[in-house]
Amino acid sequence: MCAWFVVNIDMLELGPILMHVVPFMLVLFRLLGLAVVAPVLSSLGIPMQARILLTVMLAAGLYPLVPSTWAGNATLDTWSLLPLVASEVFVGAAIGLIAAAPLLLLQTSGFLIGHQMALNLVASYSPDDESSDALGQMLLLMATAGYLAAGGLETLFVSLGGTFATLPAGGAGFTDAPLDVLVALLASGTELALRVSLPVIGMLMVVLMVMAFVGKTMPQLNIMSVGFPLKILCGLAVLLWAVGTIAEVAADEVETALHVLAHWLRELGS
């Protein structure tokens, strides 16, 4: 029995298996770069073990579709693998950052609104034990729901899968960083954040002017005890009134970001 087992072990060839180790790891690193930054996948509400397991499963499902010549002459040598790994992580992270920019900037508008409404004075904690603002999280969840409804996650995976046919392993360097694309998205997203927050901030300015007038004409009134609830009620009323419009402009911004991402990937692969 032992002799038969030793003979079969000797007959086992690991060459066909080892030749897939490096290409699979490069596919995995490109997906890991995406999972670190991309919307939904980078959520701190998902345990790290689950994210890693999901990324490995996606890499295993995507690897059979990768062209056999994609990894080129990549070997197991450490010094030759480091630039390839850095390039793959860079490509995935760049794709995820372009897709996440509108959502993060919409969260910034919620932070601005909460700061003006004095909601940030109350310590509110997220599940990861870090201080966060309630309105920013609410707008981020709304944007994430619109992103999922628009098929953003599917588009993200399809775009990433298409890069394996057009961009070989190590084909992108840091000089190919989408700086122009990110600057354009940041400018557009900042405009979105201001469009979302300015109506509420304008209403709060009117409330502050009214409170100042009342405070001067009625000094016996404790304006602080009246002002805080009034600011919160007026701000929330304007925000709820504008929820439909916020959802529309956020969906348009997400679609724009996905189109810009597809255009950048076409230029990168050409």
Major β-sheet profile: none
Mean pLDDT: 75
Count of DSSP strands: 0
Percent of residues in helices comes to: over 70%
Strand-residue fraction?
Answer: under 5%
Span between N and C termini?
A: 58 Å
Shape: elongated
Q: From N to C, what is the helix and strand string?
A: HHHHHHHHHH
Structural class: mainly alpha
Tally of structural domains:
1
Low-confidence segments:
1-7
Question: Could you tell me the radius of gyration in angstroms?
Answer: 25 Å
Helical segment count: 10
Structural commentary:
The chain is mostly helical and 270 residues long. The chain has one domain (2-269). Helices cover 74% and strands 0% of the residues. The protein is built from 10 helices and no strands. The chain has helices spanning 2-11, 15-18, 21-37, 48-62, 78-116, 134-149, 152-166, 179-217, 223-241, 243-269. The N and C termini lie far apart (58 Å).
Comma- or semicolon-separated keywords:
single chain, 270 residues, mainly alpha, 10 helices, elongated, disordered N terminus
